[in-house]
Amino acid sequence: MAPMAVALILGWCLVAASRAQQLPRPSLSLHPSQGVSLGDNVTLRCHLPRPAAWVELYKEGKWRSRKEMDQEQDAAEFSLTGIKQEDAVRYQCQYQGLEQPGTSEKSDPVELLVTDDRYPPPGISLSPKEHVEMGSNITIQCWNKKYGAAFLLHKDGHSAPIQHQEPDDGGTVTFTLFGVTPADSGTYRCSYRIGGCCLLFSPLGDNVTLEVIPRPAIPGDNGGASRDLVAVVVGRWVAAIVFIIILTISVLLVAQRRQMQSDERPGATSRSPEAVQFQVFPGDSEGLTYAQLQAVTPSTHPHGTSTTPEPPTIYAEVGMGGPR
Ligand SMILES: *[C@@H]1O[C@H](CO)[C@@H](O)[C@H](O)[C@H]1NC(C)=O
Ligand SMILES: *[C@@H]1O[C@H](CO)[C@@H](O)[C@H](O)[C@H]1NC(C)=O
Ligand SMILES: *[C@@H]1O[C@H](CO)[C@@H](O)[C@H](O)[C@H]1NC(C)=O
């Protein structure tokens, strides 16, 4: 058991040590990164996460050049002057650690895309039209039968192409924008990759402009119809509720008026509590401090309690003189 545990711990230590020794990968960037044409100058910058003794540049996986470094530099620059067709490829860089021995892995590749202005720009068309309602499907066709190997769709304000596609036999591609929103409004152009060599591209072609109208302006289409339906349903509900409220108020008003009319009959007394007269039945009052009495409003019910199912019950202090 013991030798096995020692071996495991030793193995773990070795793995950890090799991990620690692995140099982090560098990263490569292009300056400028866009709009490079044949004959331009481009700088490739290799960013170093650790001090390096030297940095190497690889072009399509093949060694191209080496730069000796000193401790202060955190990047190495390689210049490409007078870009040619064959420079339009992928690049990577790699470094040798200065304090830490070993060589890093290669960086992620970067593509040097070069425009060759000698090629004609592609044709472009947009359908069904430039002003469309939200939710429409839009197609943008681009073509160049002779040279187009793959097409890119560019939108002004975006650095990278937004779509790319291989052409059909007629050298045409159809880019579709499904269910467009106002965010799809803008200016679109195409370019194509030139068949044969490298990452060479045609110049950008003519523009097409798309304007997406936020809400359908024409009533009667599907969206308008459904909104109209909603409006009708809501309108009916509101009308029904208003009718019920008016009906309730009318009933209450009528009831109140009836009540007032009955109160205003001749001989009626006010409805204030002081005016309620108490009828005390003979014999009940003698010797009692409190008695249960029937409260009767004589004017309203002159013939007793026949129309009043449950007359109110009132406790009253009874004087010794009996009813007045
Ligand atoms: C490219 O660099 C060379 C030498 O550094 C310079 O002579 C030339 O003018 C530059 N070209 C462009 C297009 O900047
Ligand atoms: C847009 O295209 C999709 C997929 O082809 C389709 O289902 C949808 O009905 C289209 N919408 C319109 C408004 O034509
Ligand atoms: C689009 O092209 C037209 C000519 O076809 C031009 O007048 C217009 O300025 C261009 N728009 C943009 C944004 O480049």
Quick gist of this model?
The chain is α+β, with helices and mostly antiparallel strands and 324 residues long. The chain is built from two helices and 21 strands. Mean pLDDT is 78; it is low at 266-308 and 312-319.
Task: Describe the model.
The termini are far apart. It is built from 2 helices and 21 strands. The strands form 6 sheets. Strands 11-18-16-13-14 form a 5-stranded mixed sheet, with no helix packed on it. Strands 5-4-7-8 form a 4-stranded antiparallel sheet, with no helix packed on it. The protein is elongated and about 115 Å long. 17% of the residues are buried. Among the domains are: 20-115, Immunoglobulin-like (Sandwich), CATH 2.60.40.10; 123-213, Sandwich (Immunoglobulin-like). By secondary structure, it is α+β, with helices and mostly antiparallel strands. It binds 2-acetamido-2-deoxy-beta-D-glucopyranose (3 copies). Residues 187, 206-207 line the site of one 2-acetamido-2-deoxy-beta-D-glucopyranose.
Topology at a glance:
Blueprint: H1 2-21, E1 27-31, E2 36-37, E3 42-47, E4 52-59, E5 62-68, E6 75-80, E7 90-97, E8 110-111, E9 114-115, E10 123-127, E11 131-133, E12 138-143, E13 148-155, E14 163-165, E15 172-177, E16 186-194, E17 200-201, E18 208-213, H2 222-263, E19 277-279, E20 290-296, E21 313-317
Parallel strand pairs: 2-9, 9-17, 11-18
Antiparallel strand pairs: 1-3, 3-6, 4-5, 4-7, 7-8, 10-12, 12-15, 13-14, 13-16, 16-18, 19-20, 20-21
The protein binds 2-acetamido-2-deoxy-beta-D-glucopyranose (3 copies).
One 2-acetamido-2-deoxy-beta-D-glucopyranose binds at residues 40-41, 81.
